[in-house]
Write a structure and sequence with these properties.
Elements: E1 48-49, E2 59-63, E3 68-74, E4 79-83, H1 94-102, E5 108-115, H2 125-131, E6 145-154, E7 157-158, H3 164-175, E8 182-184, H4 192-201, E9 206-211, E10 224-228, E11 231-242, E12 250-259, E13 262-269, H5 275-285, E14 289-290, E15 304-307, E16 312-317, E17 319-320, E18 326-327, E19 330-334, H6 346-350
Parallel strand pairs: 1-10, 6-8
Antiparallel strand pairs: 2-9, 3-4, 3-5, 5-6, 6-7, 9-10, 11-12, 11-15, 11-16, 12-13, 14-15, 16-19, 17-18
């Protein structure tokens, strides 16, 4: 088993102040920059799935947080917290909102991930879901913490055209004044393979690799890569199989992924459910039943109730079978519509093993 890299700790001492690199004195001959208008929203930069960490000095690494992607807008008179899909969830994260009010900045846009940590200090997607009242719930989570990993706007200046290393420099300085439910997602100086092995040993989801000299570009451009310890993706629930042992209980959920404009059956999941998950799922599934399968299906399962493909489940799994089915799948929770979770695309997953 690989030893953890000698670098900053992964999650320990997360509250300890972090010192950024010293700033150079400002050249008085340098003209003051004109102010940029603050954008109402910036489409997020997304990570491309890869099977191995990239090599070379062009990359920096961070922990992959398992939660909800958020952008926090510190505006002159208010705080706005937006989901990846652009929905305003300020009221659902009061602790993050309060922490943003304490930041020593007039205007800013922080990019980060909201998580709830378990007793071992690891992000737990199920705990986050329950703190928000489950899918379709409208509870506020005072347990969520935002791990900020990028700074897109700062005191009247658009930073998206700057290199990541420069944006991180300013972010680290800003986070020295952070408190409460906003923390810095640390840049970790380590070999990618060693860091991935260490993250997996700690029970984390994986790592993120980012090109340090790249500007902030929206979409899945390849500037950011995600490398996972255990695979986890979002799938449509297209049916459910009734339990043969417990009346009214769920035996398994039937799942589908995208393949171009079509849906493809990718197997089922029958583990990971908690009692409250079963009750929530049954209440929602009973309202979206279909007489026939919503996709081509040639399986031999009995007692299947087919569903409209509107519910999106986050599924953890170990691998794919040769015929394109999930192996050792486990249910993690339902994704919110507002989270704009991307349903897994077979073609993207199949190319994740390509060379970087």
């Amino acid at each position: 088993m690989a030893k953890p890299p000698k670098s900053k700790p992964l999650l320990r001492d997360a509250d300890k102040p972090i010192t950024s690199r010293p700033r150079k004195p400002r050249d008085p001959a340098q003209p003051n920059l004109l102010l940029d208008p603050m954008p109402a929203r910036i489409e997020p930069c997304l990570a491309l799935l890869k099977s191995k960490p990239p090599k070379g000095d062009d990359w920096i690494y961070e922990i992959k947080w398992d939660g909800y992607r958020l952008s926090v807008h510190v505006e002159p008179t208010t705080i706005r917290i937006l989901t990846r899909g652009g929905h305003d969830w300020t009221h659902r994260f009061p602790a993050i909102q309060q922490a943003a009010l304490w930041l020593p900045v007039g205007t800013a846009i922080l990019d980060g991930e909201a998580v709830v940590l378990d007793q071992q200090g690891r992000p737990d997607f199920g705990l986050l879901q329950r703190s928000l009242g489950g899918r379709g719930g409208n509870k506020s989570s005072s347990d969520a913490t935002l791990f900020a990993f990028d700074l897109l706007y700062f005191d009247g200046h658009d930073l998206t055209r700057m290199d990541l290393s420069e944006r991180r420099h300013i972010l680290e300085d800003l986070m020295e004044g952070a408190a409460g439910a906003i923390r810095l997602s640390e840049e970790i100086d380590a070999d990618g393979d060693q860091l991935l092995a260490s993250a997996c040993e700690h029970g984390l989801e994986g790592i993120i690799a980012k090109r340090k000299n790249a500007p902030y570009r929206s979409g899945r451009t390849g500037d950011w890569l995600k490398i996972k310890c255990v695979q986890s993706d979002s799938f449509f629930i297209v049916g459910w199989e009734k339990s043969m042992t417990a009346r009214g209980q769920i035996g398994s959920l039937l799942l589908a992924a995208r393949k171009g404009d079509h849906l493809v059956y990718v197997g089922s999941v029958g583990t990971g459910f908690k009692e409250r998950d079963v009750l929530q799922l049954r209440n929602m599934m009973d309202k979206i039943t279909l007489e026939t399968p919503p996709l081509p299906y040639t399986g031999a399962r009995k007692n299947v109730a087919w569903l409209q493909p509107t519910l999106i489940a986050e599924i953890e799994y170990r691998a794919w079978t040769d015929d394109g089915k999930l192996r050792h799948a486990s249910y993690k929770g339902l994704r919110e519509v507002q989270d704009n979770a991307a349903v897994a695309d077979i073609s993207e997953i199949r190319t994740a093993d390509d060379a970087i």
